[in-house]
Design brief:
By secondary structure, the protein is mostly helical. Helices cover 46% and strands 8% of the residues. A two-stranded parallel sheet has the order 1-2. It is globular and about 40 Å long.
Length: 71
């Protein structure tokens, strides 16, 4: 993919990816599609990808962290 080509050309030294899309990733078709594209790019780069999950009471990770007073 074009994204994996950029990764390889730029000489980035990534060791893994942590995906933190908003929690509507579990039900929003557009977010699901974006997540699938990201997972394919990460796989094309031969990198492991971890999906972060938090309470659905908070859509974004920023909302969750703010509610928990974590920075």
């Amino acid at each position: 993919s074009a994204a994996s080509d950029v990764y390889k050309r730029q000489g980035l030294h990534l060791t893994s990816v942590q995906e933190a899309f908003d929690m509507d990733k579990l039900r929003n078709p557009q977010v699901l599609a974006a997540r699938k594209r990201l997972q394919q790019v990460v796989a094309d780069c031969s990198l492991p990808c971890k999906t972060l999950i938090w309470s659905e009471n908070y859509n974004g990770i920023d909302d969750y962290l703010a509610a928990k007073r974590i920075s």
